[in-house]
Structure formats: C-alpha cells, structure tokens
Write a structure and sequence with these properties.
eight-stranded mixed sheet, five-stranded mixed β-barrel
Length: 494
C-alpha cells in the first residue's frame, strides 16, 4: 500500500504540473472520434499516396519515450493500435505534455495511418489531446525469477475491481460482449415468434414461483413488507389470463441463498409463457433458442466446455426421471417401497426437509446420483407431482408432471411446465405447499391474489425458464457464474 500511495502521489503531482505549469485542462468536455482501432487496421490501404487521416481516442497501455520520438499503444473499445509521437510533428508544448503521460491516461490523437519500418500499422500523430489523467495506477505484467506473471491474477480482486479487470485482463471484455450478443439473439428469436417483451414488478407483496428464500424489504409510506422477486412467473401468468397470448421477460431474480460455481444471489432469468401450448412446445422453443444462439455466437453447434465436446445440434434426447435413475444409478424406484426408498436415500446422504415424501425422495436421489452424469443435452421429464405445485400432472399417470428440466454438462439450464390452469387444483396444491413452511422455510406462502387470477380463467399454457447466466457460461466456456456477471455479489471488505 505504501508503494501504491507513493505512485498516486507522483501522478497527482503530474496532474498539478499539467494544469498549472502547462496550462492544459486535463478533463475536457468531449472529443470527436472518427475511427476505432480494429477498423483502422482492417481498412489499411498501403497503396494510398496520401495516408488516411483518423481521429482516435483510447487509454494508454504502453509507452516508449525515445528522445524526440516515442511509441505508445492505446486501447479503445475494439482493441489496440500503436501510435507514433514525434516532437517535430506535434510541437514542443504537446511533446512536453506527452512525456508527462502515464499508462492508464486517456488521450485523443489525430494523424495519418502508415506502417512503421517494422511493418506495424500505426497512427502518426499530428495532434494530441489529454482527455483524462489516471491517478490510480493499473496493474501491470511483471517478471520475477525469470517467470512472467499477471499482477492482477487474484480472481477475487478482479471481481471487486471489474472496471480494472476489463481494462487489463485479456478476453474479459469479449466474454461480456458475447453475453450481450446471446441476449440479443434470444430476443430476436422470440420477437420472430410474436412474443411480447414485458416488465413485471421486482418488489412483490408475496413471493412465489419457486422454492427459495427471499430478500425482504419494507416500503415506508405504505408500511408494508415487500420481497425481491424469486421468479418472474406469477405476474407473467397474470398477463396470460389478461389476454397476452405470448409474453416473455429477461430480468433479474433474487434468492437469499449461498454462492457457488453456478449460483449468485442476484441472477438473470428468461421466462416465457405461450397460451394454447404445453411442455412439448417448450422443448421445441428451447432447442431453437440454444441451437440458433450457439450458431450466432460460437459459429457452430459443437462447442468445447470443461474439456468436453458438447453437441447442441437438435433434436435432443428425452428421458423420464425414473428411467434416468434406472439407467445412470441402477435404481428401479418404481418398484421400491417407501421404506426401501428412504433407506436408499439415507445411504447416499440425502434427506427430505420436513420428513419423508416419496416424490421428493425420488427427486433428491436424482439430484445426488444422476445430474452430474448428464453431459450431452437431455430433457429430463415427468418429475414427481410433489416437486412442483404450478404444473399440470400427466393425465396418464398423475403421480408425475408434464415438466422437463434441460441438463447440459451436469447442470440444469432450463425448466418448463405444462402450466396448471385448474383453479381448484392450483388452490389445493399452493395451500398444501404453504403448510410445509413450518418445516421447510423455502416453501412459498399462499398467494391468494394469484389464485384469484387463475380463477378468472387461464388458457392451456406452456411455460419456460432459462438461466441466462448459465447459458452464457456454456457458450463462453467460463467455469464460474462470477465470470459472466459484470459485478457478482461479494462480501464487503473491511
């Protein structure tokens, strides 16, 4: 910290000299940018007799001062480009300014684009403007004992200082540009299918749509408790009731839970609902979203992730929960008694909150014994009816649901239902689930207003949720959700 403070002190002194001794405002209003680094390099034409004139701005990343001529590299939104700065070309005053500049300063330059003697495309500067003086030095690559290492390699430090991470760590910005492209492509697909993009409340008087612990708040003027939403579902279904046949939202959800490789308390979900459809229609939409998005962002439906080759080419496999347990764990749960099932669950270190429930035990065994073995895309279908109160049962066997979860590389990426629209069944299941709150704090409360909305009449509906953060992880090759969130949740520093 002492070294850093010393460097900051030196830079503050340079700032004073620029202002007072050179009479230059180091923080002007704006700068006219005409070109960016990637376009300059891609469009370079060495046959031109008169070099193309450009105006480019960016952050200084390297500086080599060599007497009356110097080289520097600036980084803009698209990449980096070298600039050549000569005292003869810009004048004594501007060159004196240049010698006071540091790595991290933001400048604007005008000049012609030419190749240096070494063949590097460069801007030969005729005019230089300081746009922002850097006070806090950026981390730099260092060498110690013959080994080159990144001084900003500590990931936690990078997450806490994402603004710096984006500047100095190769590939980070590209990950988030891909995230933007992924969301844009998804919206394009849904727009083509005539879905309406909507916005629903983040603050809700009753939370629901999932089994999770909420974040609580309070509205002072109304003197009421409010919750940050754990799901987009309750209000989107109200829109289906109201006559919006196809709706979707890509928005933030919040769950007061732990943090790990695939979980962050604040995360982004896509939820969509289509009237007069069921979970098989949601399978088709899911396949289309993943396949087309992979092609748009990765250029192929075959991707490399975590050392594995994953093929996203559709159609994907469909497999019932009970069949998956038989295939991957050798368990025929349909032939097991409750006592045998409970004993097997206990053997594998599992448990059901609030006491044994057959369907929940089957679900727990699936999570423990099967999930991490599902590498290639597969729709796991027909979950036990006890797992989900907002889903239609399979009318051929009402012990199970018309529901699927999509698994890729052992991780759930999507969840879909044939949505329950029977108001009596809905009221019964939500009430029964609310009773479990005494033994399971994640069980959602009874939402009377939601049930009354369903009582107004909801058409047959298919619903789908996709974890955007996990999809981005898959298509960018990142192993942690924190690497695809610009600002992940972190414990405050002392």
């Amino acid at each position: 910290m002492e070294e850093e403070s010393g460097l900051i002190k030196v830079r503050k002194e340079k700032l004073r000299e620029i202002r007072e001794d050179l009479g230059i405002n180091p923080f002007p209003y704006k700068y006219g940018v005409t070109d960016y680094s990637a376009g300059i390099i891609a469009g370079f034409d060495e046959t031109l007799t008169t070099p193309k004139s450009v105006s480019v701005a960016g952050r200084i990343m390297t500086v080599r001062v060599m007497g009356k001529a110097s080289f520097s590299t600036i980084q803009d939104r698209d990449g980096r480009i070298q600039i050549y700065v000569s005292q003869k070309d810009i004048g004594d005053a501007s060159y004196e300014l240049f010698k006071k500049l540091d790595i991290g300063d933001i400048i604007g330059v005008k000049g012609g684009v030419k190749k240096t003697k070494t063949g590097e495309i460069s801007v030969f500067v005729s005019e230089l403007t300081l746009l922002s003086k850097n006070i806090r030095p950026l981390p730099v690559v260092k060498e110690k004992d013959g080994e080159v290492f990144d001084a900003f390699a500590d990931k936690e430090l990078r997450y806490r200082n994402r603004h710096v991470d984006l500047i100095v760590t190769p590939g980070v910005k590209e990950t988030f540009i891909k995230r933007i492209a992924i969301i844009k492509r998804i919206k394009g697909i849904l727009d083509e299918k005539n879905f309406y993009e909507v916005e629903t409340p983040v603050l809700q008087p009753v939370y629901g749509g999932a089994a999770a612990s909420p974040f609580t708040s309070r509205h002072n003027a109304l003197d009421i408790k409010l919750y940050l939403r754990i799901s987009l579902e309750p209000y989107l279904k109200r829109l289906i009731v109201g006559g919006f046949d196809r709706v979707y939202e890509i928005g933030k959800c919040f769950r007061n839970e732990g943090i790990d490789r695939t979980h962050n308390p604040e995360f982004t979900m896509l939820e969509l609902y289509q009237a007069y459809a069921d979970f098989s229609d949601m399978m088709a939409i899911t396949e289309e979203i993943f396949e087309k998005t992979a092609l748009a962002v990765c250029g192929s439906t075959t991707i490399q992730y975590d050392g594995k080759e994953i093929n996203l080419k559709t159609p994907w496999r469909r497999l019932k929960v009970t069949d998956a347990l038989k295939e991957y764990a050798g368990l025929d749960v349909m032939s097991m008694s409750d006592a045998e099932l409970e004993g097997t669950l206990d053997t594998h270190g599992g448990h059901v909150k609030g006491g044994f429930v057959r369907g929940l035990a089957i679900d727990e065994l699936f999570k423990i014994l099967v999930e991490d073995k599902l590498i290639q895309p597969v729709f796991i279908t027909h979950h036990p009816v006890e797992t989900t109160p907002l889903c239609k049962p399979d009318y051929e066997d009402e012990r199970f649901l018309q529901r699927f979860e999509l698994f890729i590389n052992g991780t759930e990426l999507a969840n879909a239902y044939s949505e329950s629209n029977d108001p009596l069944f809905q009221r019964k299941t939500l009430y029964e689930q609310s009773l479990r709150r005494e033994v399971d704090e994640e069980a959602p409360p009874m939402d009377e207003n939601f049930v009354q909305a369903i009582e107004a009449g909801m058409p047959p509906t298919g619903g789908l949720g996709i974890g955007i953060d996990r999809l981005v992880m898959l298509l960018t090759g990142e192993k942690s959700i924190r690497d695809v969130l610009l600002f992940p949740t972190m414990r405050p520093q002392d």
